[in-house]
Amino acid sequence: MARRFSGGRLVIASHNPGKLKEIVDLLAPFSVDCISAADLGLPEPGETGETFQANAELKALAAAKGASLPALADDSGLVVDALGGAPGVYSARWAGPKKDFAMAMQRVERQMGHNADRKAHFVSVLSLAWPDGHVDSFEGQVQGRLVWPPRGNRGFGYDPMFLPDGRSQTFGEMDPLGKHQISHRAEAFRRLAESCFAT
Questions:
Q1: By the 8 A CB rule, do 133 and 63 touch?
Q2: Cis before 87? omega within 30
Q3: Residue 15: what pLDDT?
Q4: Rounded to whole angstroms, how far apart are CA atoms 9 and 42?
Q5: What is the pLDDT of residues 43-73, one digit of tens each?
Q6: How confident is residue 199, by pLDDT bands cut at 50, 70 and 90?
Q7: Is residue 4 part of a domain?
Q8: What is the extent of the structural domain holding 83?
């Protein structure tokens, strides 16, 4: 049984401005008092897990214990069928220390070579943790395919090269409200909200 968040301050355990904005926007209807891990001066823990859930829980628990407050963390990434699931949990690392996602997208495209299978999906796991070590996790996915060259300068990460199924715009071209309706993070958030947030 998931634990309910009863209000008060919630730490968003992310140092990624794009991800932080998406999570804060998703939380807006619940009138949650959000503060980022970066604003609290909390360090980014090493993402040593081998799954999205392991990494999300690791980040959420580190922030919850560091701040003595409930904390919400996301671990997400791009899973490309033709690359055996890569970059997967290493999606951020493919962008290097400078978080250069233009370079990361080029790397994906280069490794695709002439492969005709362009299927891919985004995965997001949201973990809500408390200082006592309790944690609940929720996963969302969105299916699509890769396009090249990248299109659009909205969103972040691999968004400009990801075209969700049934859509004509990449995540990089969509307005934020449109993306929030169908994204992997929005799907994970719906499950989180149903279980942990009062409406």
A1: no
A2: yes
A3: 84
A4: 15
A5: 988 888 999 999 999 999 999 999 999 999 9
A6: low
A7: no
A8: 9-196
Does the pTM exceed 0.90?
yes
Per-residue three-class SS string for 122-160: EEEEEEEECCCCCEEEEEEEEEEEECCCCCCCCCCCCHH
Residue-by-residue DSSP string for 66-88: HHTS-EEEEEEEEEEGGGTT-BG
Catalytic residue among 25, 39, 74, 75: 75
What is the CB neighbour count within 10 angstroms for residue 68? 10
Number of compact structural domains in the chain: 1
Where residue 181 sits, what CATH number does that domain have? 3.90.950.10
State yes or no: is 117 an active-site residue: no
Backbone CA torsion sign across 101, 105, 106, 111? positive
CA distances from 11 to 71, 80, 187 (A): 4, 31, 20
Q: What are phi and psi of 65, to 5 degrees?
A: -75, -35
Quote the CA–CA distance of 94 and 47 in Å, as a whole number: 13
